[in-house]
Each structure stands twice: as C-alpha cells, then as structure tokens.
Amino acid sequence: MAVIDHQAELNRAGANVRGRLGGLLFFIRQYPLGAIGGLIMIAFLATAIFAPMLANYDPLSTNARASLAPPGGAHALGADFMGRDVLARIIYGARISLAVGVGATVVGCLIGMTIGLLSGFFGGWFDLIVQRLMDIMQSLPLLVMALVMAASLGPSLTNTIIAIAIPLVPNVARIIRSNTLSLREMPFVEAARAVGMSETRIAIHHVLPNTLAPLIVLATAQLGSAILVESALAFLGLGVPEPHPSWGRMLSESAAEYVRTAPWLVIFPGIAISAVVFGTNLLGDAIRDMLDPRQRF
Amino acid sequence: MATLAARTETQKAATAGKGAVLEVEDLQTYFYTRNGLVKAVDGVSFSLQRGETLAIVGESGCGKSVTALSLMRLVADPPGRIVGGSMRLDGVDLVGLDAAAMRLVRGKEISMIFQEPMTSLNPVMTIGRQISEALLLHETNSRKAALARAVEMLNLVGIPEPQQRVKEYPHQLSGGMRQRAMIAMALACNPKVLIADEPTSALDVTIQAQILELIAKLRRELGTAVILITHDLGVVAETAERVIVMYAGRKVEEAGVGELFAHPLHPYTRGLMNSIPRLALMRSEGAKAATRLQEIPGIVPALSNLPPGCTFAPRCAFASDECRRAYPPYEQKRDGHWAACWHSDKVARASDG
Q1: Which of A58, A135, B60, B287 has the lowest CB atom count within 10 Å?
Q2: Which residues of A touch B104 (CB under 8 A)?
Q3: Under DSSP, is residue B118 helix (H, G, I), strand (E, B) or coil?
Q4: Is the confidence metric ipTM above 0.85 for this complex?
Q5: Cβ contacts of residue A293 below 8 Å, gap of 6+?
Q6: What is the arithmetic mean of pLDDT over A53-61?
Q7: Residue B102 CB: number of other CB atoms within 10 A?
Q8: How far apart are CA B112 and CA B191, in angstroms?
C-alpha cells in the first residue's frame, strides 16, 4: 500500500502559504498559464507606462535616410517608409492599446453594470425596453457595431473608446441582469429589508458586490477583444488618427505595399497585438478558474 | 459591555410597567392571484405583552409566515396586500405608515430572524459589516462604534472570539454560528419585538436547543417580546408562554402553553399533538403498545377555494352538519382559553378521557 505523505499533500493544497509573496508563488504554481498571462500583461503595462525611457527614438520623427531600414543595426526592429523606428512606435503604441482597451472595458462595464442592475433588480417597463434594445445591439457583431459607431463619431481617441465601449455594454448588462434576477430572491436580500434598508441601498450594497466575480471574468475577456477591435478599426482607417502610433494602423499602413518588401513592418506589430490578446486570455482563464467555486478545494 | 448592561437596566425598567407592546386587530392579508383571491391571513387578532414569548403554530400554508411578513410589512405587493385591520406597535399603526417611515421601524423597533441561516447572510460581506449595517441605519454614524457594538453583540449571542469573527465571511461559520450571527443582527438595535420565523428548522437537533435557549436568554436579559413561528410543538412547549394555533389563515385556538397542552379544545390542535412521536408509543408498553403514530388526514385546503362552514371540517373526526354549514364563532371556552369550534366540549372530553 502506498504511503501517503501528508505534509506533501498539504503543501500541494497550499495549506502553509503565508503572506502576499507566498500567495503569489502559490498562484504561479497553481495556474502556470495564468502566471504567464500575468507576466505578459505586466510587461505590456510597464511598456506603456515607461515608454519614453524604453524607446531610443521619437516615434513620430521621420528620417528619410532610414526609410525601410531592415531590422538590426541602428533600428532594432527596422524602420518604416518614413524612417520612423518600428520598436519606438510599438512601445508608444502600447499606450494607445492600453488606453483604448482599458478605457473601453471600464466604460462598457460601468454602463452595462448600471443597466443590468437597474433592469434586473427593479424590472418593470425599464427592463422590457432596455433588454429589447440590448437584443438589437447583440444581433450585430462587435466589430460591425464598433465600425458604425466609429464612422459616425469621427476619428479621435475618446471616440474610439466610446465606439468600442458601447458594443460591449449588452454582454455586461446581460450577465449582471441574470445574476441580479437570482440574487434579488435570496434570503439575505429579504433580511436586509427586514433591518430597514432601502431598495436602492440593497441593490448597491448587497446585490452589486455579489455580481462582481462574473464581471471580473467577463472584463478580462473583453479587454482582449477591445484591443483587437481597436486594431481592426485602425486597420480599416477608423481608429485613433495619425500620427499616433497605433498597432492596428501600423499594420494597415504597410500591409498592402510592403508586406513582401519589408515584412518587419507587418510582423512586429502583429506579434505585439497577438501577445497582448493572448496574455489577457490566459490571465482571464486563470481568474475564472480561481473564482469558480466548483474548481476550488 | 458596560453600555450593554446599562441598556439592559433601562429596558428592564421599561418592561416593569407591563402592557401590550403590539396589538394586532382583524389583520387581513390577501393575495390576488390568477387562481383567485387567496385569504392568507383572514381576520387575525392578538396582542403581545412586553417581554412575552408568543408562539404561532400550524401546518405549512396555514398563514403563519404571512402573518409574520405582514407585521414587517414585507409581503410582496403584487400579489399580496394588507387589506384590512391594524397593527399597533406602541400605539403606532404600522398599516398606515408610508414606505420610508416603515423602514425606520424595521430593524429598529421590530426585527426578524429567518428560517435559512445558510442563505440569510450576504456571502461577500463580513459578519461584522452586516451587523453594523443595521446599526448604521438606525443608531450611529460611526463605523467604528457600530463595529464595536457588533463585537459586543457576537459576544452576547455566544460566539467565541468575536474580535476575530467580525472579520470573517459567512462561509467560514457553521449553520448554528450563522443563526447566532443572524440573531445578533436582528437584536443589534435592541428592538421591542423579535419575530423568529422557524428559527431552528434548518438546524440539526443539538443546535436547535442551543438557539432556543439563546433566544429565551436574550428575551430575559433585553426584555424583547418574541413571536415564535413554528410547526414544532416540542419547541412551543419548551419556550412559549402563550400559543396561537392557526389554520387556513385564521386563528382557531389560543391559550397559555400549559392550558393548551392539557386541554386542547380544537380538533386541529389535538391532531397536531397526536402527531408528535412519543417514547411510550414506540417502546410497546402496556395497552398503548404498537399504536401507530396518528396523523391528520388530508391536507390544508387551497386557500383560494375554502369549503363553506368550518374550514377544518373535511379533515375533522368530530365534524357534523352544523360544522359544514357555518364557521364556528371564536369564543372564550375556559378562562383565558379561546377556540373556534362547535364541538369543543366533545374534543375536551375526548382528550381528557
């Protein structure tokens, strides 16, 4: 009969994890893929924040002599037609992607949360009208919605954020609403009423915090698709306007003309987009597993 | 603890002058449903003395929980509505209060413990925060003071290490502990009336006794009047002073607990008592050996479609034509013992003999 090493089993279950550092190490051991995703996201964040320190060149300054310079040499990842350093543009582009990704996700989640809570908790005609509106919005693909919004709002950073945030709203509103519907029948809501709490206060203090776990999972997934949609919009010429270095725009500028002659103009921004979306998805999956009580033991 | 002791003193002084704290008169709570009008509570009257324990018993669906929710004005509207009667708490009629005024009463003057301790606490909020919420709503603006009071309350309801427990979440407590925390929450503002709606049904038997003892102890110490809603006559015998028996939305019998158990005058009450398992029956001793446990035949009639006459007649062994014709008057049959039955004399004789 196999001898069970109780101490080893306990270690595996994380029984003697102490402190923040211990907790972090335990997370890494438990969710290695999530840790990789987290690492990518940290690198992405750091790049965006410390862009001026990391980049050797100004992403906007042109240099005719360096036009279409290949990778290596003075320009590590090459230079584009106007002689702008690709690495510097990717580094500064992280700021745009981060601003649009996080901005759109936060705005979309806030609006969606409010709508979902109002329509789930208070119901009535508001719920009916708003949910039909959400149905209509959900019948269009995210990109098409964003495309229409961006085209009608005109190109600017704020407008791009709004154009991506609005199509995210129905997903969030749906999830919050369905959670709220089951939560408002919970005995603790009745108990809160029994101590004299008002309906608004119950909605904000008791129902909303209980919907946060699924919202966090959804938000991480949305972050990836928001970044992707921003790239797509920029590729189609509707994103953040020139001369800001957006990854999607870098692709679209060079894809048609230079993909054969100067492939580095397409490959490196493409890698950047893929890496960040991959990172958010890995992290999102790990968070979902962590918050799912069925997988916790 | 000093403040608590002082508070208990003042409350005792207040209780010294006995009198009714809650007077319910002809309460009618109706539900307007697709299947018709459901008279869930139909003309129930009672009064609750300061510091008293009043039990309301009956089967599922007899209207006891709706009575409790009506007292809190928490009946869902639609479909339910309090359509008549009055509920005077220290002279103030709760039926007439608007929503905002009623919120000031809930939790402060009259509070409630629910059946399900497992789900009556918010899973994402610490115990301490949930108890202090009631205090922040009614008594103090200081989070610190409220939390200190929460610790005091947890100590009072017998939760060990209250300093530690206030920081914990509901899933870290057992069912009995959670019910204690619920009681602490309900009593935090020192209400005049505590409604306990089957507080022990979801707990295992060993914990039940502890929780009932705790409620009794707090009633003695704080002078809170308790309305205990239950279907368990064992619990009634242990804790209540006076008992109301409800059937199909109406009060069918009311008496002191000793009187009721000694001389039940309504066949329904008698039926409830006969359906309690007793050791003498099980041990096969003497003449009563191997007697089967008796039940009340049939079920509570659908409240939307009540029979004419006495609502219990279809299930009653004593029923006569008179019973099927007219609902019996609710009368005082013995000293302090009221019942609504045409044949209470026969019932009494059958019980005594």
Answers
A1: B287
A2: 196
A3: coil
A4: no
A5: none
A6: 80
A7: 17
A8: 10
